[in-house]
Amino acid sequence: MPRTTRDTDELRSAPAPIQSSPALPAAGATATTVRWKVLTAMIVVLVLWASAFIAIRFVGDAISPGPLALGRQLVGAAALVAVAIIRRPPLLRGRTLALVAVYGVLWFAGYTLVLNLAERHLDAGTAAMLVNIAPLLVAVAAGVFLKEGFPRSLVIGLLVAFAGVVIIATGGVGAHADALGIVLGVLAAVLYALGVLVQKVALREADALSATWVGCVIGAAVLLPFLPQTIVELGAAPAPAVWAMIYLGVFPTAVAFLLWAYVLKRSPAGVTASATLAVPAIVVLLGWVLLGELPTVLGMVGGALCLIGVALSRRASRPRRG
User: Fold this and answer.
1) What is the pTM of this model?
2) How far apart, in whole angstroms, are the C-alpha atoms of residue 85 and residue 91?
C-alpha cells in the first residue's frame, strides 16, 4: 500500500511534457506579432512625416513659421491630452520628466519652428533631404553614447540610403534652394537628432504616451510667445491653410509622434532613426502627385536607394536564430 501511494504521488508530481511544448511557438508568435506591429507603426510614421513637408509648403505665406509651429503644437497637444485622459498613462517625475521636457523643447518646439523657416527657402524635397542627415547623426551618436554599437547591416544600410539622399539632393528636386535654407535645414536635422537621442534615454523609464503628450505640451508652451501673432494670422488665413495646420497637429504630430515613441521604445535608436531615410523618397512621390513636382530620373534612383538602405538597416533589429 505505501508503494502504491508513492507511485501515485510521483505520477501526480511528474511534469506534463505535452503542456510545455506549445510555449515556444507561442513565444515565437508573440515576437513576430510585435515585430509586425512595430513595422506597421513605422510605415505610418514615415508616410505622415513625409506629408508634413508637403503640408508646410502648401500653407506657404498664409501662416508664418512661428504661428504655424504654435498652431500645430496646440492642436497636437489637445489631441494627445484627450487620449491621455482616456488611457490614463503613468505620470512622469524627476529625471524622466526633465528629459522629456528637453526633448519637447528640442523637437516639438525647436525642430518644428526651424523646419517651417527652412521651407520658406527650400522646396519640400530638398528640405526632406537635408533633415535626413539626422538619422546618420543619431546612428553614430547612439552607437557611441547609448552603446548600441554599429551592426554591419546598419552601417551598410546607412551608406546606401545616404548615397540616395545625395543623389536626390544633387539631381532630383531642390531647384529653389538657397544658402539660408540649407543652413536652416541642417540646423533642423541637428535638433531632430538631439531630440531622438534624449527621447530614447527618457523612454527607458517613461511610457510612450506620457512622453509624447508631455513633450508636445511643453513644446507648445515654449512657442506661446507667438500666440498674439497666431490669433491675428489665423483670423485672416484662408480655410485650406487653417485645415492644413490642423492636419499637421493631428496626424504628423499627435498620431505620428505617438507611434514613433512606440517604435523607439522597442527598437535601437540608430536602427529606428535610419528608417526615416525613406521619407525623402515619399516626399518626392507626394510632391509629384500633390504639388506637381515631377521627379527626375536621378530623383527616382536616389529614392530607390533610400528605400533599399532602410530595408538593409532594419535587418539589424532582427534577433539571431539558433
Assistant:
1) 0.78
2) 12
